[in-house]
Amino acid sequence: MLISSLQNPRVKEAVALRERRAREKSGLMLVEGYHELALAVRAHMVPTTVFYCPERLRSEENNLLEHFRSTRTPLLEVTMAVLAKMAYREHPDAWLAIAPIPKRSLSELALPEKALIVVAESIEKPGNLGAILRSADAAGADALILCDRATDLYNPNVVRASKGTIFRVPVVEATSAATLEFLQERGIFVAAATPAGTIAYWDLDLQGSVAIAVGTEKEGLSDLWMEGADARVTVPMCGAVNSLNVAQALTLILFEARRQRR
Questions:
Q1: Which of 230, 225, 238 is CA-nearest to residue 199?
Q2: What is the CATH number of domain 2-100?
Q3: Residue 158 and which of 39, 98, 125, 178 are 20 to 30 A apart at CA?
C-alpha cells in the first residue's frame, strides 16, 4: 500500500505523535531513522506500524525491510513528501515507525550484584538526555532512573540524540524521593556529581553498587540529593568555568567506574 496523501489518517496519527500530549494519551511514540529503528528491533521493541520510503531506501537496509515482512509488522510505503511531513528531522532517511512507549517501575528493575546506575534529575534539554543515554549504554550502565522529569523521555529529539540507545538501557521514571529511598534500601552507594564536590571522581571507589546522580543544567542537583548522597563528587576544572556539560561530566565518571571494574 502506497500512501501519497498528506491527509491520510495514518499520516495524521504519526504527525500528532510529535507532540507530548498525543504521546501521553495514546501510549505511543515515534522512532525515526534506520539506525535507531534497527537498534530498537535488536532490543526487542515491536512497532505497531512502520513507514518507509522506497525512493530513499538503501540496499543495506533491505534486511530491516525483510525483518518487518517476516514478522508481519504493518508496513506502509510512503512518498518522499509524506515522509517529510511525518518526520522530525530536516533531512529524514527512509524510515519512521510508531511504537509502544516502554513502561517500567523501580520494583521491576533487575540489578546485578555490583550495579552501575545513572540518576538524572530534572534534565531539561532533549539533547543532553539523549547524550546521557548514549553514555550510559556505552559504559555498560545497568539502569537510568529519570527523576522529576523536565523533558519528555520519548520526545523525538531525545530518541534521535540517543541514537536508539533509549531502547537498550533500562529506563525508569520516578520521583527523587522514591528513587533515593529505593537506592538506600538496597545499600547502593549514591555519588552526587556537583561542581561543589569534595572528592575528585578518579579518587572515589566506584567498584561496588553505585548510583551516579546528575542534576539540571543550570541549578544542578536538588537539596534532597545533595544531602542524601554518600559522597559529593566533582570533575576538577583547570579553566575559567566551574563545570562541564552535564552529559560530558557524567561520561567521565561512568568510564572511570568502568575502568575501576576491569
A1: 230
A2: 3.30.1330.30
A3: 178
